[in-house]
Structure formats: structure tokens, C-alpha cells
């Protein structure tokens, strides 16, 4: 086995580190890996000697570890999950692996999928063309090796091994017995249809193997955590699924986008084929831009899981606004506002307080939250006493959202002092046309560090789940594809009310 030299790109920062050959997270082998215990050594030789495309160091490392064999000769990993940043050579490695399965292992049926059918066909056409033009592999292809009938495209060797492709749908590998599957861009699987179809086509194959190669995903990439979580559990605690192999080149959590050492962990070809200075510059631009540009950079170039690709409130900025210093709302009573909001499904509600501090910053905190079906009944029962206790200058809600369900109870009601609503000194505010202004202003105040919060887990979870929903040149927190975000809405409403309170009236004097 001959490794390619650790060459550097022609444009590079001489102080930049080489990309990490070893992934940051990986499943340890059950025994020493040798040519007898891993087909990866054979794959490396196949790439160099037969295909004429020697692997880079990280691809060699991956081949050896992903190709681990059990004592009976079956692949140790029935599922292999490879996470690596873009443009590091994962496609070349995957294409070579498919050819190895076809021409060396000669398995009966190999499936290839990608982002969609077009991309999967492009990979199939590339592998087919390379095989036909290769002086060694072409000898194992007969005159009709490549079938071009639309919907039935396949490449078949003289040994009977067949490679076909399919879209990410419930019809992938349906009514077949599948032996190998190269699943490119697993992050694009938004449901389990294709996975269930193809993986179940392997149930009767004892030595089947699925290799999923992808960069990091977002909250809709449901299959990545389905494989990654049990693999992490096994790595850390020895429980979970020992036959899921995780090999993850990624930047550590919390790493800055322009941290070259962190980028080296996500990009194993950094300074080899990827210019470090250009990647760092891209990271700096993304950091300055925030929003979708930063989320995209973290996902594709740092291989970090990003819950939302278009977060309404910048996650890092929100984290930076957190504090452990307590704030007593009673000291700022003349500058306190409350806001209530309800989740789209009506099974969660949050009451948030905001107070403008002496330095101009705005402190926010959760006063109370309710959860469960029918929780609005408890909201109606608890709210008057909570408001009396806090004694805010203003209380508001968003009647054009789910909180409309409580509008009748939240409007002013006459009665004895203990039953009248609102409590004395509290002004009611219906937040209608200002919804976009509330959301956009809250996001901006977080970005500028003018929001202070006590790191409440519930509020943080709701803020992190809020994604932008465009309304022309404005936007609001999108509820449809998120979980509960009523805490984020209540926070934004409370901040708006607190920051627009008129000056407090002077205290009464007795002559």
C-alpha cells in the first residue's frame, strides 16, 4: 500500500495546519485492522493500481476503518455513516467503493442514490464511463453492459454484478434483494420512505452494507441523528448499536467559523487540496453576515449540525447574551412589561417579562409556562394572580396568532377589585400590526447584545426553534415547520412593550 504524499495546494498559508486524517469522532475497531481484518487495504490498492486514482490520506484511513470485517468475513458495519465537509473528495471515494463492490467483491446488486434522481444518474453515468474507459475494468463488461432504457438504467458486469440508481422515494430498491447501497447526501432525506424501502430490501442478505456519505444536516435531516445517535452512544458508553460505524470529520461545537484548527478537523484535505486562507476568509464573511450565510457555512464547511438554516435569532448571539447575574423585577417595576403567547397546537403557553435596565439593556425572563392539551384553561385560571404579583406597567398578547383563543378573557373586564381585569395600574396592549416589528427588533437587539437573559432552557429552546417566515421585506417567527416557539414570541412582544413604555408618572406628593 502506497500513500500519496501529503502535498499542499499551490495557494496556502504556510502556518495553516494540514487537514486531520483521523476524524474527530469515530467508532473504534473490535480488533487490529490488517489486510485480513479489513477489506479497506484491498480497496486502497484497487484505487491506486486499477483505477489510477490514489486515495488521499483521509480516504485511506476511512477505507481501512469502514471496511472492518467480522471473524466470519462479513462487514463489521451494516451501516456506515461518513460525515465530512464539502469538496474533500467524498464523491471520488464513493465512486471507487462502488466499482470495488462491482468488480472485486462482485456482489449481485448495488444501489446508488443522491440528492435526487438527476444527481444519482450523474454519478451512475460517471462510474459507467470510467469503467468502460478503464483498460482493466472494461474487460469485465460485455457489449450490453450498460442499459440505457429510462427507468431501467443499469451497469452489469460479466460476473453478474449490477449497479443501478434510484430517486429518494419509497420505490427505491422495491421488489429487489439488495446487497450494497451507496447513499450520497443523506442529509437530503426528509422522510424515511427511501430508507425503509432500500434497507428492508437487505433483510435477507447477511453481509449487506449501507454506506451513507454526507455533510451535516439540519432539523429536517431526520436520518442523520437516527444513525449518529446510537453510534455516539456506543462510542461513549459501549451501548447502542455496535454495527453502526460513525466516521465524522467536523469542527468542535462552539468553534468559530474562522478558526483554522477547527476547519482542519472538518476538512481533511485542508492545505492539501483546499486553500486554508480562502476557507478562513469565507468563514469570516459568514460570521459577519450571520443568518443563512453563517448557517450554510457551518453545515457545509464545518460539518456542524445546524437546527435551522435560516434562524430568526442568531444562536451564537443569543448564547452571548446569557448571564448568571440575577435581576429583581421589583426593582424595575415601572419599566416592566409582560407578554403571553400560545403555541400553534395550543398545548403550550409562555408568559415572559421584559424590563429595561439602567444601562439601556433589556432583561427578559420566563415568569410561567404551561404545557399539555387544554393548558389554556390553566392559563386563564393562573394569569390574573401572576400579573398582580409582578405588577407590570403593561400586559400584551398577539391576537392575530394562536393567542386569539384567549382574546375574550384578555380584554378588559369590569368587576370587584379582586376579579376585575386587568389589575390596577396595568395597561392592556394587543400586538397586531407590530408583529413583524417585534420579531425583527428582538433579533436585532440580540445581535447587538442589548438583550440579557438568564439562560432559561425553555426560552432558549423556543428561540433556537424560531425560523424566519418572510412577509415581503419583513419577516416574523415561522410557526408552521417549528416546534413550540410561543416563548420566543412572548419574549419579542414583552421586549417591544417594555421599550415603548412612556415615562413613569411622578410619585404623588401630599401637601
Q: Approximately how much beta-strand content do the residues carry?
A: 15-25%
Q: What's the helical proportion of residues?
A: 25-40%
Supply the CATH class of the largest domain. Answer: Alpha Beta
The CATH architecture of the largest domain: 3-Layer(aba) Sandwich
Distance between the termini: 99 Å
| Mean pLDDT metric | 90
CATH superfamily of the largest domain: P-loop containing nucleotide triphosphate hydrolases
SS-based structural class?
Answer: alpha/beta
The low-confidence runs, each spanning 5 or more residues with pLDDT under 50, are 1-13
Strand line-up of the largest beta sheet: 1-9-2-8-7-3-6-5-4
Q: What is the tally of beta strands?
A: 17
**Could you say what the CATH topology of the largest domain is called?**
Rossmann fold
The overall number of domains is 2
Instruction: Compute the CA-based radius of gyration.
Output: 29 Å
Number of helices: 15
Largest sheet: 9 strands, mixed
Indicate the overall shape: elongated
